[in-house]
Design goal:
Elements: E1 9-14, H1 19-25, E2 36-45, H2 47-51, E3 56-61, E4 67-72, E5 77-86
Antiparallel strand pairs: 1-4, 2-3, 2-5
Length: 90
């Protein structure tokens, strides 16, 4: 059906493991552990996303839980990217 939206789906994305945490496991002194921030990018693609003006693509800071809850109610390709940004040490 052209012009109709798909049934809304609830999606949950999360970080299972990452290289920075693996490195930090080996560091004994808390002051020497690497700090990082997490950001998410959600991108919708396809004709319906264009028609609905729902392309998105903004990069948003994680809430601190390393989880991104999303819902999708348009047909087409959907991408989620996660960025870990290493913080400079003092």
């Amino acid at each position: 059906m052209i012009g109709t939206r798909a049934k809304q789906k609830k999606l949950k994305f999360f970080i299972e493991e990452n290289e920075i945490d693996e490195i930090n496991l080996k560091v004994k002194d808390e002051e020497n552990k690497l700090e990082y921030k997490v950001y998410w990018k959600v991108l919708n693609r396809g004709d319906e996303a264009i028609r609905s003006n729902c392309i998105r693509g903004q990069i948003v800071k994680d809430s601190g839980r390393q989880i991104k809850n999303e819902s999708s109610d348009i047909r087409g390709e959907h991408y989620v990217e996660c960025y870990l940004i290493l913080m400079e040490s003092a």
